[in-house]
């Protein structure tokens, strides 16, 4: 048992946290609940806008490709 303790002490393992993280939940709640007229999913800043636009672009592409695939499957191929 003593050997295990000395190994843990040398290796630097610990069950306690080394640095406490700041709790930013209240700050984020104030930002999200502020009546600024902006949509909630865009209040996070430029990264939220980038994620939103990327998601919308992928959705539009996916819907367009789905419609194209369905039309290609429905219409018979012309044989020459």
Q: Note the gap between the termini.
A: 84 Å
- The outline comes out as flat
Sheet of most strands: none
Poorly predicted runs of 5 or more residues? none
Helix count equals 3
The sequence of SSEs as H and E is HHH
Q: Any idea what the radius of gyration is?
A: 27 Å
Q: Which percent bin holds the helix content?
A: 55-70%
**How much of the sequence is in beta strands?**
under 5%
Care to count the β-strands? 0
Mean pLDDT rating: 82
Helix-strand makeup class: mainly alpha
GO cellular component, one term: mitochondrial inner membrane
GO biological process, one term: mitochondrial electron transport, cytochrome c to oxygen
Protein name: COX7A1 protein
Family: Belongs to the cytochrome c oxidase VIIa family.
What would you say about this model in short?
Helix content is 60%, strand content 0%. It is an all-alpha fold and 80 residues long.
Describe the structure.
The protein contains three helices and no strands. With 80 residues, it is mainly α. The chain has a domain of 42 residues. The relative contact order is 0.05. The mean pLDDT is 82. Keywords: Membrane, Mitochondrion, Mitochondrion inner membrane, Transit peptide, Transmembrane, Transmembrane helix. It is found in: Mitochondrion inner membrane. This is COX7A1 protein.
List keywords for this structure.
80 residues, 60% helix, flat, transit peptide, Cyt_c_oxidase_su7a_sf
Blueprint (SSEs and pairs):
Blueprint: H1 2-11, H2 25-33, H3 46-74
């Amino acid at each position: 048992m003593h050997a295990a303790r000395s190994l843990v002490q040398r290796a630097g393992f610990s069950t306690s946290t080394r640095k406490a993280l700041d709790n930013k939940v209240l700050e984020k709640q104030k930002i999200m609940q502020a009546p600024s007229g902006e949509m909630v999913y865009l209040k996070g800043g430029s990264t939220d806008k980038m994620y939103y636009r990327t998601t919308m672009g992928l959705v539009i592409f996916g819907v367009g490709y789905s419609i194209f695939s369905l039309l290609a499957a429905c219409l018979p191929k012309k044989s020459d």
